[in-house]
Design a protein that fits this description.
This protein has 181 residues and is of the alpha/beta class. The protein has one domain: Uracil-DNA glycosylase-like domain (Uracil-DNA Glycosylase, subunit E, 3-Layer(aba) Sandwich). The chain has 5 helices and 7 strands. Strands 1-2-4-3-5-7-6 form a 7-stranded mixed β-sheet, covered by helices on one side. This is Thioredoxin domain-containing protein.
Amino acid sequence: MKNLLTDNPIALQALMSETIFSTGFSEKEDTSSSVSNATAIPQPSTATGSAEEFIYQGDKATGVLFILRYPEYPYFSPNAEEAFIKTIGALQLTPHNVAVVNLANPHNPNDFKRIMQFFQPKRITLLGVEPASLNLPAIAYNSYMKGKVATVFNTFSFEEMFVDVEKKKLFWGEFKTFIGS
């Protein structure tokens, strides 16, 4: 256990394939070596309600939510994470004051009503997530739909924008308007 660099249950769950049981003992912490968290993205938050659980990162209190579906990554690929941070940073947002949820995580319900109840967002950006997969009406790419509580902006994933510069330009023009409204 001396080489273990995290006690974050989400990180451990991703790294371990076996169930671990505690024997009730506690190990004295080694304070001689400290590990700094150099990542710009905040650690995932786990919130459990009576019948729901979401694993997400950031802060849901601001009302800005990004929904994505990356099966290969906990949230973003390294390049997409960098692009995400730069994109929201240009609009005075940070990974700490927006919420990001990956629907590819089996713990996260793929149910728009439950997402709305839990996050209570005002602005939702679907990054490469088809609106129909959340039982939403069709929303054209780089356009948004205003609902009673929140506005949903549908756009491409960052990987799609990396491949096609035109998609990136279309995204940026509408995203600035969407976040600023």
